[in-house]
Design brief:
Strand content: 5-15%
Number of helices: 18
Structural class: alpha/beta
Shape: globular
Mean pLDDT: 90
CATH class of the largest domain: Alpha Beta
Distance between the termini: 36 Å
Number of domains: 2
């Protein structure tokens, strides 16, 4: 038991450390203060919730102490749909069932307190988020001494499962992240990011990859893809059967993709504007010159879409009309509601990061990765804690989770600018509030046809916010809502014919009204988008296997060097 206690001490210390500040998990003092203040003037409501909780606990203890061993365990509360933590036969044993039921009752009690607290919306959102973090972290499933599945496995393996678990924990402590997949199963350029192509341009910020055609003819206007700079581009080029890049090439498009550099400390003073002038704009220009077409089509994903939107607003202010169409995938241009990420980005946090990066430095990619994971802690942290450490298992191979763990460093100056001007103050959505490249930025100048995709269960870019972002554009907008979340909703291969998407509603001010008027279509949004893009891609012309041109020659085969650089 001493060994198990020490195991859990190490476990909690190292899992919670990356999301704590100065040794304290953010929100702990605020949570208690908010609850106390909220119920100070509403004691009857407080007493009602308390009495109901204590009554259920008494009923649970009464049933547990009086039932016969053969009787089924008492059920005072059911787990939420989809919660699989306590479904195993081991959890039906009286003692462990009691632990699970007590935990579920306490979780519901705290949830009711938070729901009933009369607070302003930002405080309520923060309170709700951190309350859920505590609820998730304190599950009896997360501790070796209170998880009967882990105890049974330890007994069956004579402690070998815990030995493997401690070894897994030690490895993850070194890397600063919980392992979510068997990383030995994947290699970038081996079985990931293998669509044939070559780097045709590079600078300190990015490499530009051009892909070889796989059809006899191609559309004359190329497609330029700007992925998020906080992740590596190959989320769009995983394996052949789920590669968005390969699909686009197969549809007859000449595809260029930006591969952002994993920033070293020496690039810590790079700015948001640098990402436009050294990243997005050269990518558009080089693709335009290599193709020889009159225009290019542009696509941005997540913060890549925010960068692309900023660059296009600047270009349109200068009268540049070389982009025929714009596609935005799970992108915010208007940051009025950033969902649960807003609980991290408040005034004190932004001011602290501005001080941290005043003289340069980089934001470690693993810090952002864990922040995103904490938004879905049970799915993306605790289930792997249980399986990897308590049970000593190796995670199953999963390409998407391998990519998710392959984090990228960001320049501190760029990050500080981004969180203040977008997340905190929403300045990009205010015409003329920001100046980039010496011109005022006005999203209303983006007037080419646009395809805006949101995903309904997105925990990073709420679909209603992506919808609000679409309304800033002045071209003809096709807004489409895909099923699932931020990644799975976007990476939904057409060949698998899974899920569905909504389209066709009138783009009014109210997103819920749009959804009411929209129609559902089965399968992947890829096919619908491909038909839309074909209308803006020009004529079909003979394909050429040679990449680049006399000025921009092949530098190295895809996926290039930058994507293989690991974050420190």
């Amino acid at each position: 038991m001493q060994a198990l206690a020490e195991f859990n001490r190490q476990l909690l210390e190292n899992v919670m450390k990356p999301i704590s500040r100065d040794g304290v998990v953010p929100g702990a003092p605020e949570m208690m203060q908010s609850l106390t203040a909220a119920f100070a003037n509403d004691s009857p409501r407080w007493l009602e919730i308390q009495n109901r909780y204590y009554q259920k606990q008494l009923e649970l203890w009464s049933a547990a102490t009086t039932q016969s061993p053969e009787a089924p365990p008492p059920k005072m509360v059911e787990a939420e749909p989809g919660d699989r933590r306590f479904r195993g036969a081991e959890w039906q044993q009286p003692y462990f069932n009691l632990l699970a039921q007590q935990y579920l009752l306490a979780s519901r009690w705290l949830g009711e307190l938070v729901d009933a607290a009369e607070l302003d919306p930002p405080a309520k959102k923060k309170l709700s988020f951190y309350a859920r973090q505590y609820i998730d972290a304190l599950s009896p499933a997360n501790f070796a001494w209170s998880n009967p599945e882990a105890l049974k496995l330890a007994a069956e393996t004579k402690g070998e499962s815990l030995t493997r678990g401690l070894r897994n924990l030690a490895l993850d402590i070194d890397r600063g992240l919980v392992s979510m997949t068997d990383e030995t199963a994947f290699e970038v350029g081996g079985n990931l990011a293998v669509t044939p192509g070559a780097v045709v341009y590079e600078n300190e910020f990015m490499q530009l990859i051009q892909y070889r055609p796989s059809t006899d003819s191609v559309y004359e206007r190329p497609l330029v893809i700007v992925p998020p700079s906080i992740n590596k581009y190959y989320i769009l080029d995983l394996q052949p059967d789920n590669s968005f890049v390969r699909y686009c090439v197969g549809e007859g498009h000449t595809v260029f993709v930006v591969s952002w550099r994993n920033m070293p400390e020496s690039m810590g003073k790079a700015t948001w504007e640098d990402y436009l002038t050294q990243g997005v704009m050269p990518a558009l220009d080089v693709a335009h010159e290599i193709s020889g077409a009159d225009k290019v089509n542009a696509l941005g994903f997540c913060v890549g879409g925010t960068l692309l939107g900023s660059a296009l607003a600047v270009r349109r202010a200068h009268g540049d009309e070389h982009v025929a169409s714009l596609t935005l995938l799970a992108t915010m241009l208007d940051f009025r509601d950033t969902g649960e990420l807003s609980v991290f980005v408040d005034q004190p946090y932004v001011e602290k990061r501005e001080r941290d990066f005043a003289d340069g430095g980089v934001l470690p990619g693993r810090e952002l990765a864990l922040t995103f994971a904490s938004l879905r802690a049970n799915d993306l942290i605790w289930q792997y804690v249980v399986n990897n450490y308590l049970k000593g298992k190796t995670p199953d191979p999963f390409d998407l989770l391998y990519w998710n763990s392959d984090s990228t460093n960001l320049p501190g100056a760029m990050y500080a600018y981004y969180i203040r001007n977008m997340y905190l103050e929403n300045n990009l959505a205010r015409p003329g509030k920001l100046r980039m490249c010496d011109v005022p930025v006005d999203l209303r100048k983006i007037d080419m046809p646009a395809y805006v995709l949101a995903t309904r269960e997105d925990h990073i870019v709420p679909w209603q916010t992506a919808y609000a972002s679409a309304r800033h554009l002045r071209g003809k907008v096709s807004f489409v809502l895909a099923a699932s979340g931020h990644i799975a909703g976007v990476i939904n291969p057409a060949a698998r014919n899974r899920r569905n998407y909504w389209l066709g509603g009138k783009l009014t001010k109210d997103p819920e009204r749009w959804l009411t008027g929209a129609r559902s279509a089965p399968g992947s949004w890829w096919t619908h988008w491909s038909a839309w893009l074909a209308k803006h891609a020009g004529e079909r012309v003979p394909a050429h296997q040679a990449l680049g041109n006399d000025r921009y020659r092949e530098i190295e085969p895809a996926p290039g060097r930058y994507v293989k650089e690991k974050a420190a």
